[in-house]
Amino acid sequence: MSIKQCEHCGKPVIIPDPPALPGNLNDMCRAFPELCALARNQSAQLNAIAKNIANIPNRNEHPAPSESVIKGWLDCPDCKPKFEALLKERPDLFALEEPEAKKYAWERD
């Protein structure tokens, strides 16, 4: 604690000392468990966001629709002609992924 004289009126002003922080992080978590929990939650959220961002396709890539989405378009009377026209123009956009070949006998149906 320190005492300083006010610049305007000359009265003494008491300035408290800042709290002493522990030397290592384990002591920090024991001293401030709520802050430690907040930091842990924020770290987990940032890690989840980073994983989601890593899974976003590049801006120039077009995500291929799943087979069920394509079937839905073909069942819709409004969407079917538009989809077929687009399919004629750009068949590469709608190439379905081939299922991975099963290597072992116990994996096969």
How much of the polypeptide forms β-strand, as a percent range? 5-15%
Give the N-terminus to C-terminus distance in angstroms: 77 Å
Described by strand count, sense and barrel closure, the largest sheet is: 2 strands, antiparallel
Mean pLDDT: 76
Low-confidence stretches: none
Helix content: 40-55%
Q: What is the radius of gyration computed over CA atoms, rounded to a whole number of angstroms? A: 31 Å
Tally the helices: what do you get?
4
Count of beta strands: 2
Shape field: elongated
Structural class: mainly alpha
The helix-strand sequence is EEHHHH
Which strand order spans the largest sheet, edge to edge or round the barrel?
1-2
Can you tell me about this structure?
This protein has 109 residues and is mostly helical. Among the domains are: 25-56; 63-94, no CATH class. The protein is 45% helix and 7% strand. The chain has four helices and two strands, in the order E-E-H-H-H-H. A two-stranded antiparallel sheet has the order 1-2. A hairpin with a 6-residue loop joins strand 1 (2-5) and strand 2. Helix 1 (25-31) packs across helix 2 (33-54). It is elongated and about 85 Å long. It starts with a strand and ends in a 20-residue tail after the last helix. The model has no long low-confidence stretch (mean pLDDT 76).
